[in-house]
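tool_call predict_complex ligand=beta-D-glucopyranose
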Amino acid sequence: MSQRVQFPRDFLWGAATSAYQIEGSPLADGAGPSIWQRFAHTPGMMSSGDTGDVACDHYRRWKSDVALMRELGLKAYRFSISWSRVLAQGRGRINALGLGFYDRLVDALLENGIEPLATLFHWDLPAALDDRGGWLNPDVAHWFADYADVMYKALDGRVRKWATLNEPWVVTDGGYLHGALAPGHRNRYEAPIASHHLLRAHGAAVQAYRATGKHAIGLVVNLEPKYAASQSAEDQAAVRRADAYMNRQYLDPVYRGAYPEEMREIFGDAWPDWPQADFDLIRQPTDFLGVNYYTRNVTRHDAGNYPLKTAPVRQHATYTETGWEVFPQGLTDTLTWVRDRYGNPPVYITENGSAFYDPPVAEDGVLDDPLRVNYQKKHIVAVSNAIASGCDVRGYMAWSLLDNLEWSLGFSKRFGIVHVDFATQQRTIKASGRHYASVIASNGDVLNSGRQAEG
Ligand code: BGC
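tool_result ok
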C-alpha cells in the first residue's frame, strides 16, 4: 500500500519502560519486596540467574535518563510505579521516600516537556499482599484502589494519563496458569480467579479515579490477533478459543459487561459463575485503551495442548529473538478490530517493539540494528494505515526506551532503542533510536521518503 504516512498534529510519540525491569535498588529507601524480587531470587526461575537488583540502575540514574529522553525528542514517557516502594506492605503506611522518587521523576519529565504516562501495576505485586493470596484474594481490588488513590492524590494534575494494569492476560497466563512468571503458579482453577480479580481491581481503581482525578484513565492490554491455519471447522473453533482467551477475555467485560462464552469451554469446571455486581464494577467507563502489540498468531487445533487445545503454526517469515513473527499488518488489523468491536475508543499504542541480536557498539559509538529499524518503520506505517481507516489512535510508545530485564528471560533479550552495557551502565542510542527521533521530529513524515521507490 503506498498510502501517505500521516499522523494527527498532536500525536503523542513516546517510549515505555516498567519499574522492575529498569529501576534496580528494589529495596532502597524503605521499599518492601515485590513478588518479582522474590521470584528472581528463587533459584532456577530466571535465565542465567539474572535479577532486577541493579537492572538499568534507573533508580539512581533517572536524571540522565530523562536527559536521554529529551535528546531523542520524546513527547511522552510511559513508566510504571512500584507499588511496594510506595506502600512497603502493599497497604497502610505511605513510604514517603519511595513516593518521592516518582514525584521527582514526574517533575523532571515536565520540566523537559515530556508528558508522563503512569502505569499503576506492571506485574510487581507487593510480596506482603501475595502472602495474603495476592490476585486470588477478592480484597485485592480494594487494596489496589487504595494504593491507586494514594498515587492520584500525589500526582494527578501533573500526570494526566493513568493506566491501571499492564496486560492482565500475561499476569494470569504466566503467573497463575503456566508458572513462567511471578508468582510462578501452575493451576487452572486459579487462573480464572486471578483474571477476574485483576479486572475487579481495574474497575475499583477507575471508580476511585472518578472521585479524585481530573484527567484520563484506561486499561493496557496486549492484543495478538489470531488467524486460523485453515478453513477446517476444528481450526476455526480453535482460533475463536485463542482469541477469546487472550483478547476478548479482558476487553469484553470492560466494554461490554460480560465474558466471552468460549471461556467456559476453555476452562470447563474451573470457570466460576460470577455475580452480576462484579461486572457493574468492571464496566466503568474509561477514557482510553492502551494497546501493546508485538506479533500475531496463526492457530490450529491441537487436542493435546491443555486447556486451550490450540497450537501456533510457524510461518515463512522473520522471527524476533523472542520467537515472535514480524507481522505489521496484524497491528492495523488489531486496531480496526478494536474500532469495530468496542466502539472506536481513543487508543494509545502503549508498547510496540522487538528483540533482535545487537552487534557490539562500534568504536565510533554507532550501533546498527537494521532489523529493529525495519520493524519500527513497518509498525508505525501500520498505525498510520489504521488512522487513515478511521481508528482513533492518539499515540505510540516504543518498547523499550532501554535494554532491560526481560522478566524471566533476563538481560539476554534486548528490546531497547537505547543500548545498555550492563557492566558499565553506559547508554548508547541505537540506529533505531536515531531513526525514531527522526520520526518524532517529522511527525512521521520521514517515513514517506523512499516509499515511492519501494512501490
Ligand atoms: C510487557 C513488557 C515486556 C514486553 C516484551 C510486554 O508483554 O509489558 O514488560 O518486556 O512485552 O516481552
